[in-house]
Structures are given as C-alpha cells and as structure tokens.
Design brief:
Alpha-Beta Plaits, single chain, 4 strands, alpha+beta, globular
C-alpha cells in the first residue's frame, strides 16, 4: 500500500528569500532517493499566514518512507529546515 506524505513548512519571518530558494532546492534534490513514486516541492501561492513551502510525496510503502526518513541526506536537509521553519505533517496510506 502506497504511503502519502505531505509537509507544510512555515518559514520564519526573518529568513531571507535567498535562504528560502536554497531550501527549496535542497528539498527538490531529495527526489532521487529510493522508494519515492512522486515528489513535488512548491511554494504556496497563498501567503496570508506567511511563506509556506509544500512537500508532497508518495512512497511505495511505509517501509520505503521509513528508509527515506533515516537516509543521511534527508536527515541533513531536515536539520537545515528546522533552522528556518516550523512544519506540520500529514501522512496517510493510499
């Protein structure tokens, strides 16, 4: 059963646009990790509540998602994202 993973990163107000663009590039670079069926990174068009970066992914299954979370590249980028944003996650099986 496929595993859907959606993250909304709310970028801190004091973060420069250059750093947001870098973060989007870093997140986009994860698309080639094993087990990913689809990978989309985008900036939200609606910025009424601040700058939001959307990560929308589908993995082959929950095991593939677990492997993704423990992958060193993901862990490095997640740590970087933690310095510039807060986030909310929505996961489900599909």
């Amino acid at each position: 059963m496929a595993y859907r993973h959606i993250v909304l990163f709310r970028v801190h107000d004091n973060v420069d646009e250059h750093d947001v663009a870098h973060a989007i590039g870093q997140l986009t670079s994860l698309a080639d990790l094993p087990g990913i069926v689809s990978w989309h990174i985008a900036r939200s068009l609606d910025e009424r509540k601040g700058r939001i970066v959307i990560e929308e992914a589908e993995f082959t299954d929950a095991d593939a998602f677990a492997a993704f979370r423990s992958h060193p590249r993901h862990q490095t980028i997640a740590a970087e994202m933690a310095t510039i944003s807060d986030w909310w996650i929505g996961d489900r099986l599909s």
